[in-house]
Write a structure and sequence with these properties.
The chain is of the alpha+beta class and 256 residues long. Helix content is 22%, strand content 32%. The chain has one domain. The chain contains 4 helices and 14 strands. A hairpin with a 5-residue loop joins β7 and β8. The longest helix has 25 residues. The chain is elongated.
Length: 256
């Protein structure tokens, strides 16, 4: 009877191929598990208490799903810069519900404002002037991918904002307002893990502006205080060009 040929180590070609196949299979399976672990969509679990949802926690503990309680959506503000003064309607569909809006948001018609090229807004419902539209929301059921972002020492947070927000497209006035709000919450931490959300946020908080802006930028920061740095993959962003009627939003949340 013929037997498989052996190499100098005493293994047949079949045995070597089998071992390699097993190793590759394990590696692929591991990659799939890791990918699924860090998907942005949370799972569902009837055992989670009210006000929480099933998802993967921030680093360095992202090894199994747990019940999460997201922080509230803090101070998103919306700036409008039309090319000429015109009436603009802004509608925001936020599933978790608002906790505060300024000026008052009408659930049926949204915000109705007269917008000017310099960003000044006049609310058509009360005739008052505002620098932007302000809203805050209840904690959303969103699991953010905190394996991507930036780890920044608390003392370096201001310099990070000045550099990174300019890269992302905020102007000096918007960057100053962002920094003034968030820096007091972050500068005292030893480190901050900072992630800028994309579709997981914009799909949850859907913004419709009429007439439609020619350029729209929505910057939403998610951060987690750290006692020691962790390794994450750096984020990069497409260049934002302010063309024609532009609209800009910034906001954020702290993970707990």
């Amino acid at each position: 009877m013929n037997t498989p040929a052996k190499n100098q180590k005493g293994f047949s070609t079949f045995e070597i191929i089998l071992v390699i196949t097993i190793i590759l299979t394990i590696g692929i399976a591991g990659a799939i598990v890791y990918r699924n672990k860090h998907q942005n969509s949370p799972g569902t679990n009837q055992n989670c208490p009210p006000g929480t949802f099933l998802g993967y926690p921030p680093l360095p503990n992202a090894t199994k799903e747990v019940c999460l309680r997201s922080g509230a959506i803090d101070k998103p503000v919306i700036y409008l810069y039309p090319t000429h003064s015109e009436n603009v309607n802004v509608k925001l569909a936020y599933a978790a519900g608002f906790t505060q809006t300024v000026p008052t948001y009408n659930e049926k018609s949204g915000w109705q404002v007269l917008a000017r090229p310099d960003g000044r807004l006049t609310n058509l419902n009360d005739g008052k002037s505002y620098p932007y539209l302000f809203w805050e929301g209840k904690p959303p059921q969103i699991s953010f991918d905190m394996t991507k972002g930036f780890v920044v020492a608390g003392s370096q947070t201001k310099a990070f904002f000045q550099r990174q927000l300019a890269i992302m497209g905020l102007n000096q006035n918007e960057t100053s307002a962002f920094t003034a709000y968030w820096l007091p919450k972050m500068a005292g931490n030893r480190y901050n893990l900072i992630h800028f959300a994309s579709s997981e946020y914009t799909n949850y908080a859907r913004l419709v502006i009429t007439p439609s802006p020619d350029s729209l930028l929505r910057v939403f920061m998610v951060f987690e205080p750290l006692t020691a740095p962790v390794k994450v993959s750096s984020q990069s962003f497409p260049m934002f060009h302010r063309v024609g009627f532009s609209a800009v939003e910034w906001g954020g949340t702290e993970l707990h």
